[in-house]
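Course assignment 3, question 2. Fill in each field.
Student: A.L.
Task: Predict the tertiary structure for the chain below.
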Amino acid sequence: MDWYTTVFELIDMRSFSNLWYWIALAVLWSTVSHWVLGVPWDLVIRARKQQGQALEDMEALVRINVDRTLYIARESGLLLAAFGFFLLTVLVLIGFVYKREFAQAVFLLGVPMGIVWLLSVATATRIEAQALEGAALIKRLHKHRTIVQLIGVVSIFMTAMWGMLQNLSASVLGI
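Answer field:
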């Protein structure tokens, strides 16, 4: 028996039964819900409680990130959307038509991130259009974060259900 076979027997390389995939999923959603439009959530909390300099810092960061997000969306949004849909289509074909678990796993990470990106662009557009500041801006960021967390909960649940189905199928088939 060579080292390659030994390693693959010790470490299950299928995505949904691999601990690293689940750690990556948890880190991804933790990070996405912490950084609201590129602003750390602890800064938003501090701005809400202390006002003053913390509020000014948060408003400056929001303005910078809103401008940046909208610039990217306006300049290359159509191209990014087309490329994103192309990648997701490739992942669907490889993952669900050709039954490759890794592509399924990446698809289950990519679709919710695409939804979060669209939500971020919509929120940035609303912040810019309404010129939100102070309490109204904090309220909008809180709403955005709540929706992102809801998307995360649904995404983790769906990924867990699909992963369990794949693991059960693999164990029944003896893969």
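Instructor remarks: Helices lie at 3-10, 19-34, 41-50, 52-97, 101-130, 134-173. The beta strands are 35-36, 39-40.
Grade: pending
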